[in-house]
Amino acid sequence: MKTGVSHVLLAVVLCALGILSNAAFAIPTLGPRAYLNAPVGLQVQGVIVGRINGDLSFDRAGPIATGINLKATTYSLLGEEFMDWGGHMGALVGTLTFGQLTANLTGTSLSASETGLMDSTVHAIYNISGAPAMTLQEWATSPHPEDDIFSGSLGISVPVGEYKDHRLLNPGTNRWVFKPELAWSRPRGKMVYEVYANTQFFTDNHRALGGGTLSQDPLYGVEAHISRSFGKMPGSFFDAAVFYANGGQQQMNGVDSGPSQDTWSVGGTLSWALNERWHARLVYSQSVSTPEGVPDITQLQAWLTTTVF
Q: Which pLDDT score, from 0 to 100, does residue 64 have?
C-alpha cells in the first residue's frame, strides 16, 4: 500500500475508533427494574459476559475501504448492596471488567487488537420517594403499595483500564466519566413502566493517540422500559426498551473530530429466577437509526447472579 494512502487510512482509523469506542463503552444503563424497592442488606453478586459489535460504513469513493468493524468480548464481576439512606432505599453497584478488543478496516489488512483491564464503573442509587427502606422481615410481611417511585443515581467510570497513548486501540479511556440520572418507575401488578433521563460528562484525555488532548461535549440520553413478570418466583420478567442518545461531539486539540450522536436503539431483557437465590439474564440492544458517521452498535450480554443476606 502506498505511504500516502496508508497515512490517510490511519487517520480514518483513528477517528473511527474514537467514535466506535465512545459509542460502545460509555457508562452502561442500569437496566430495567433497577430502581424498584428491595430489602436493606440484600447483596447481589454475579458475572456478566458481553459481546459488542460496531460497524461504521464510509461513504467514500474508491475500492480501498468500506468501513470499520469493532468487536469486543467483555467479562465483568458485579457487586451490589441495598442500604438504608435516611429512611430511603439506596444502593451501591460496582463492576470490574476485563475485555478483548479487535478493530478491522474492511478491504485492507489494517487491524488492531488489545486485551486487558477496562475502566470500572460505580453507581450510587437513591430513591427519592415511593421506596422506603425496609428490613427483610418488613419486606416479607408488609404489603407492597404500587406507588410511583422517583429516584436518582450517579454513575462514575473510573479510568483504571489499561491505556498507552501509542496504541490504536485501548481497553481503557484515560478519562473520568460522570453520569447523573433521574428515574421514574410505576409498578402495576405484573407490569412495570419506567423512564430514565441522564447526561454523561467527560473529562479530557491529555494523552490522546498522536499527542494532544481529546475532549468531548456532554452526551444526553433517555430510555424507556416496559416489563412484565412471569412465573411464581420473584425476578422472572421480560422487558422491551427504547433508547435515545444525543450530543457527545468530540474535539481533538479543540477541533471537532467526528459527528455527534443522534441515535435511536431498541433492546430487550429476559430475566428468570432459577431458584430463590440464583438468577439468569439475557440482554440485547441494537442501533436502529444513526446519523452518517456514527456506528451501528449491537450488544449482547449474559448474566448469572446470586443474592446474599
A: 39
